[in-house]
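Deliverable D2.4 — example input (structure tokens):
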């Protein structure tokens, strides 16, 4: 295999997988996804590796670079932020490689919505609070199907991780409230989770927009909403003494 789509993780260069890190050290060509990839990861590259920033490239140019490198029998790492399956525009690249008969492998990464949970020290799936995590975004240049509008998703009152939307926080709050989240629902904005300059803003649907706007946060941030950010929950059955399972008998 000569082409690897690799998840770089959320920012902290130690949050890439061992496999991804190894591939970076042996790659001949690295095409990385702009400013969200920590430059420290690129320093793992061998000295004569060719390194390209895809922020200034079109899809065709990215593909052309991969195809050329493969033709020269080079090992190519296409480095995506977080995990490539989440808003990574990876499918359109894989489809072209499929059509050309070029093989590839995908190496997953730690998505920023998981780094945000770690930063918030929260559990998204609290018993009797929510057992569902919704990963979504507000509509931007990329349209969102009508049935997935934020207000419709909000009716579940599940834990929600909202990408790519902090610059429209007013609209996010409006849709969440319209969809059924009470105004006192806790919400947090995690900017640059796992980076040295990570920042956390907490509030409720009633207060968060003012707090975040005052701080001037308008990009690279995760919005997390739901009662899981509150104190209350039921203890998990997994570790409860009355609950036996394959590896432990009930007492
Ligand atoms: N594939 C990436 C997401 C790419 S879309 C992943 O799995 O994380 C880019 C969006 O991801 C940003 O607008 C922001 O909402 C979020 N994001 C990426 N890195 C982040 C980080 N370190 N902290 C908070 N949000 C982040």
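Example output (designed residues):
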């Amino acid at each position: 295999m000569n082409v690897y789509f690799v998840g770089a993780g959320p920012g902290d260069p130690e949050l890439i997988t061992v496999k991804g890190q190894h591939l970076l050290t042996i790659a001949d060509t690295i095409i990385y996804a702009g400013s969200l990839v920590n430059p420290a990861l690129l320093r793992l590259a061998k000295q004569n590796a060719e390194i390209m920033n895809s922020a200034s490239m079109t899809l065709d140019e990215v593909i052309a670079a991969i195809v050329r490198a493969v033709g020269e029998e080079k090992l190519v790492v296409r480095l995506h932020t977080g995990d490539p399956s989440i808003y990574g525009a990876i499918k359109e690249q894989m489809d072209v490689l499929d059509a050309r008969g070029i093989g590839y492998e995908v190496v997953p990464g730690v998505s920023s919505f998981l780094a945000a949970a770690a930063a918030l020290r929260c559990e998204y799936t609290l018993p009797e609070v929510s057992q569902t995590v919704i990963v979504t975004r507000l509509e931007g240049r990329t349209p969102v199907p009508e049935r997935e509008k934020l207000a419709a998703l909000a009716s579940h009152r599940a834990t929600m991780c909202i990408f790519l939307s902090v610059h429209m926080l007013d609209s996010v709050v409006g849709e969440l409230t319209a969809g059924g989240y009470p105004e006192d629902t806790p919400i947090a904005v995690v900017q640059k989770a796992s980076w040295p300059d990570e920042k956390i803003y907490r509030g409720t649907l009633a207060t968060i927009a003012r707090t975040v706007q005052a701080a001037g946060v308008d990009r690279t941030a995760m919005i997390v909403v739901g009662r899981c950010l509150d104190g209350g929950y039921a203890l998990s059955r997994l570790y409860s003494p009355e609950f036996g399972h394959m590896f432990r008998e009930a007492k």
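The chain has two domains: 3-107, 112-229.
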